[in-house]
Amino acid sequence: MNESDVQTIEVALGARRYPVWIGRGLLGDSARWRARLRGRHALVVSNTTVAPLYLERIAQGLDGLHWSSFLLDDGEAHKTFGNVGRALEALATSGATRDACVIALGGGVVGDLAGFAAACWMRGIDFIQMPTTLLAMVDSSVGGKTGVNLPAGKNLVGAFHQPRAVVADIDTLATLPDREYRAGLAEVVKGAAIGDATFFAWLEANTDALVRRHTTTLVEAIARKVRYKAGVVARDETEQGERALLNLGHTFGHALETAGNYTALLHGEAVAIGMLLAARLSERLGMSEAPDTARLQQLLDRLGLPVARPAGMAPEQLLALMRLDKKNTAGTLRLILWRGIGKAQIVTGVEETAVLETLAEATSVNAASGRATAS
Ligand SMILES: NC(=O)c1ccc[n+]([C@@H]2O[C@H](COP(=O)([O-])OP(=O)(O)OC[C@H]3O[C@@H](n4cnc5c(N)ncnc54)[C@H](O)[C@@H]3O)[C@@H](O)[C@H]2O)c1
Ligand SMILES: O=C(O)C(=O)C[C@@H](O)[C@H](O)[C@H](O)COP(=O)(O)O
Ligand SMILES: [Zn+2]
C-alpha cells in the first residue's frame, strides 16, 4: 500500500459530517488535516507512551498555531474525571478560545477523554481524532461517544460530541504491542457478529493474515468495520435505537473491566468474553443456536482473544455491576442479545437468574495471562 492510497469514509451527519481517513503517512500529511482546524489554538492530548513515538510527526503541521500538549499516564485506570479536569486546566492555561481544537493522539482512552474535555470546554469546541491503536481506528475514534470511567462503572460520565475528522495513520500500528492489536480485532469481530454475516465469513477466511498484520487485509478489515459503524452512527447518532446494537458484549464486558479495576483486562478482551457470554445467554433463552456460538468462539480464539470469565470475578459481583449499565431502564436489565452470525437484538427485562447461570457456567481463568479457554 502506497502513501497515496488513502480511503475516505464519511460519517454522514449533515452539517456535522466528517471524514475518516485511513492510510499510511497520514500524521505527517498535515495539508490534509490542518484544514479542519478553525482557530489559532490547539491542545494535543496524548499519553506518556504515544507522545514520544508520534507527537513529532504532527508537530510540524501545527507550526504557526498556539499549541501545547497534555499527556496522560498510560492505561484505562487514567480515564478519569480528575484527568478531564487537568485537561481543561491545560486549555485554560493555553488561553484556548471557542475556536480552539483538541487533538486526540492515541488509543481509545486518550480519544474518549480528550473528546469529553472538548465537549466541556466553553460548552463544546472542535476536536480531531488521531487514533494510534487498532481498536481506536475501528471503533472509538468514530461516532462521537466521549467520556470517562468511575470506580462504580465504565463510561458512566460522558457526552456525545463528534470529531471534525478522524486521521487513522496505519503506520502507527507498527509499534502497537500484540496484545493491544488483538484487543482491537475483538471490536472488528463485534461489528461482523452484529450486522454482517458476509464480513464474519471473510474474517474467518482471513484470520491468519489478520494475525500476521498483512497490510491489505488489515486495511480492508478496518475500512469494512468503519463503514459499518459510520452507517449505524449516521442513522442513530445518540443511541435512541439501532446504535445500542454496537454494545453487543459490552454489558458483560464493562462489568468485567470494572471488576478488574480497569487493569486486569483490556477493553477488547472484555468485549470478546462479553460477546461469548451474550451468545451463551442468547442460546439459553432460545434465541440462537450452539453452532453459531461455536463459530464465534473459534474465531475469537484463533485471533488470540480470551473467551471465558476470569478467575476471581464472581457472578454475583458482575451482575451487581451490570445493574448500573446505561442501557437499563426501569430497574430491569436491557441487553444486546444475539440471533446468530450477523444478527443482534435489544432485549428488555432479561431475567437475572438466566444471567447468573450463564456467568456461572463460564470457566474461570487467570486474567493476567490475557488468554483463556472456554468450558
Ligand atoms: N468511544 C467509543 O465509541 C469507544 C469504542 C470502543 C472503545 N472505547 C474505549 O476505548 C478504550 C480502549 O482503547 P484502546 O484499546 O485503544 O486502549 P488504550 O487507549 O489504553 O491504548 C492501548 C495501549 O496501547 C498504547 N498505544 C497506543 N497507540 C500505540 C502505538 N501506536 N504504539 C505503541 N503503543 C501504543 C497505549 O499507550 C496503551 O498502553 C476504552 O476506554 C474503551 O472504553 C470507546
Ligand atoms: O459507538 C458505540 O455506540 C459503541 O457502543 C461502541 C463500543 O465499542 C464502545 O465500547 C462504547 O464506548 C461503549 O459505549 P457505552 O455507551 O456502552 O459506554
Ligand atoms: Zn467497545
Automatic annotation (TrEMBL):
The protein's predominant localisation is cytoplasm
Has UniProt tagged this entry with the keyword Protein transport?
no
Binding locations of NAD(+) = 74-79, 108-112, 132-133, 145, 154, 172-175
Q: Which ranges carry the 3-dehydroquinate synthase C-terminal domain? A: 184-328
Q: Tell me one GO molecular function of this protein.
A: 3-dehydroquinate synthase activity
Q: Which residues form the 3-dehydroquinate synthase N-terminal domain?
A: 71-182
Respond yes or no to whether keyword Zinc is given for this record: yes
Cited SUPFAM superfamilies: Dehydroquinate synthase-like
What is this enzyme's EC?
4.2.3.4
User: For binding Zn(2+), which residues are annotated in this chain's numbering?
Assistant: E187, H250, H267
Q: Where is this gene product found?
A: Cytoplasm
Q: Which UniProt keywords apply?
A: Amino-acid biosynthesis, Aromatic amino acid biosynthesis, Cobalt, Cytoplasm, Lyase, Metal-binding, NAD, Nucleotide-binding, Zinc
Co-factor note (free text):
Binds 1 divalent metal cation per subunit. Can use either Co(2+) or Zn(2+).
* Cofactors: NAD(+); Co(2+); Zn(2+)
Q: What does this protein do?
A: Catalyzes the conversion of 3-deoxy-D-arabino-heptulosonate 7-phosphate (DAHP) to dehydroquinate (DHQ).
Give the matching PANTHER family: 3-DEHYDROQUINATE SYNTHASE, 3-DEHYDROQUINATE SYNTHASE, CHLOROPLASTIC
Protein family according to the UniProt entry? Belongs to the sugar phosphate cyclases superfamily. Dehydroquinate synthase family.
Name under which the protein is recorded:
3-dehydroquinate synthase
What is the organism field in this record?
Frateuria flava
